[in-house]
Design brief:
single chain, about 160 residues, about 5% helix, four-stranded antiparallel beta sheet, about 45% strand, mainly beta, 2 helices, elongated, Jelly Rolls
Length: about 160
C-alpha cells in the first residue's frame, strides 16, 4: 500500500512548516451572481456580456451560467477581458455553450483538472498578474436575436 500527499499536506507536515496559499487552504469563498436582461439585439454574433469583475489573483472554484432560449442557433463562449475591454481569452472557460439551458457548471468545460488552484490570470493564459480585476464575460459566437435572461453564479477564493 502506498500513500501520496498533496502539496497542501506536504507543506503542512514540513519542518519547518510551509504556509499554503490561503486561496487553496482555509480561504473564504466569495460569490458574484446575478441576472442580465438581454434585449433582442444583445445576443448577436460577437456581442459581449460582462458578468462580473473578479480579482486576477483569485482561485476560480466554480462558474455556472444559464440562459433562456435566445433564438436561432445561439451559442456563447465564456472567457476573460481586461478592464479596458481588451480580450484576454474569449473562450478560456467555455466554448459554444448552447442557450436555453438551466445553470450549468462550466469551470472544467475547457480547462483540465490540473488547472485546479491556478489563479484567474493563469487560466486566461497571462504570464503575469495584471494586478487588477478581470471581467468574466460571455461572448456570443452564434446569433440568437431574441430577448431573454442570462443568469450566473461565480465562486472564487482569494484569502
Amino acid at each position: 500500500m502506498t500513500t501520496k500527499n498533496s502539496d497542501l499536506v506536504a507543506n503542512y507536515l514540513a519542518l519547518p512548516q510551509v504556509a499554503n496559499p490561503a486561496s487553496e487552504l482555509g480561504g473564504r469563498i466569495r460569490i458574484a451572481s446575478g441576472n442580465v436582461a438581454l434585449a433582442a439585439g444583445d445576443s448577436t454574433d460577437n456581442d459581449i456580456v460582462y458578468l462580473a469583475p473578479i480579482p486576477s489573483h483569485a482561485n476560480l472554484v466554480s462558474i455556472r451560467i444559464g440562459a433562456d432560449a435566445l433564438g436561432g442557433s445561439c451559442t456563447y463562449n465564456v472567457g476573460l477581458y481586461k478592464l479596458d475591454n481588451t480580450v484576454v481569452d474569449e473562450d478560456c472557460l467555455a466554448t459554444s455553450v448552447a442557450d436555453g439551458a438551466a445553470l450549468a457548471e462550466l469551470r472544467y468545460e475547457v480547462l483540465d483538472l490540473n488547472t485546479t488552484g491556478q489563479k484567474l490570470y493563469e487560466l486566461g493564459g497571462l504570464s503575469a498578474d495584471p494586478g487588477e480585476p478581470l471581467y468574466v464575460a460571455a461572448t456570443f459566437n452564434a446569433t440568437g436575436g431574441t430577448l431573454g435572461d442570462m443568469a450566473f453564479i461565480i465562486e472564487y477564493a482569494v484569502d
